[in-house]
Sequence to fold (437 residues):
Amino acid sequence: SMPSEMLLKIFSYLDAVSLLSVGCVNKRFYELANDNGIWMKLYSGSSQPKWTVWKMKSKQTETVSLGCAALHDKKPGYWKKEYILKQTSAFKTRVMRLVKLLDPYTGLPCKNKEAMKVSGLSWIIVLKEKNGKEHLIEKPNLSFKDTSVTILWYGTDWPCLDVLSTLKLFGVTPLLPDQSRPPNKNGPRRFSLIAEYHLANLTESSVAVGADELVQLFSLSPGLLVGIWKEKNEIAFVMASLHYNQLLERSILGSATVQYAPPPNTPLLDDIDPEYGLHDYSLHLDLHGRSCMYLCGSFKGLFCRKGDIENGYLRLTVVSLKDNRKHLPVIGTLGICWETDVFKGNVKDCFVMDLTLLDETGKPFWCFSAPVYMELSSKASGLYDYMGHIYTADYVDSEGKVCVEFVWLEETKEYITVSLVLYISTKKVNSWYGTNY
Fold:
């Protein structure tokens, strides 16, 4: 029963976040909360870049005189949209500025954690049933590594796997972040779609990574691990591995329905070097089990001879069987740790592989973070230094393949990495360098 004029007067004292929230009460409040006069005042009073202050002062009279025209000529909600666009643009610029400084060790932004904290970034998954009903799962456990972040969700009230159709992974940030105070969990938020996975026939169509007494793990590309209870066909937990390369862009710059598409690399043509695109690669490789690190290695000067280009792949030999100087020990027993409210476990013989391959300029060329499982090979070790069973672990995606071989030493109870070979798609190389192999 309160007159609209009085409500508008009250709304005029609210900040932007409160104004957006009160607009969700009902249709009348929504229409009043879209008032151009209130939002234009917020827009004009929001912070401006220092270099535009003198322009604003010199044109202050002009701005005031145009105020009434700007209000009457625009549709309701126009200045609300302009304010939100202005704030989100400034926010994205501030966050992206933090990740410009690169780590010479990995070639990745060295202030990722700081940028995530400033942005208020978090991650959620949305489970969608076949009838269209959605379940939003928040409050994950995070584990940060040198080149990736591992995210674990679990709960007791998740729907049965049989009724689920898709799983969506989102990056979530406050719609109007305020650096002076922590993000309001109940305030308006912005969703950025990172990946969408289809769960129909999950156990039949997906790659089985491993199992322990309680759960069985299934891998979904890219970088998602789903744990299914053995006793019943229900999800126990979901684990996502996200590589730092373009992590913030994908988590912030996309929309709720469309994934962020990074701009294509601009090739720097080199007509002098006949083997341009075949040499001076650098590799940083981590193997971990979410909470513990098993192997961390960096390799420089990787190259491929033209004779090693076969079946549409460039071969980069990182660790060879014959050169035992580069053989690397694996620290601890390989396995992926998981947990829920009640149970904990460790699925042996599988791990998360973080790979960062840099080109000759130090720019990330091929990066991923994904679960990988290890299998016993049928061949026995022919190495004099290592007598034991050989295990293999392979990874494949559209850009390349990774093949790793380990030897198990029974005497010392440890694995030794005796072979590591990368196969890079010639399509990827040709597109990146502007070459033709």
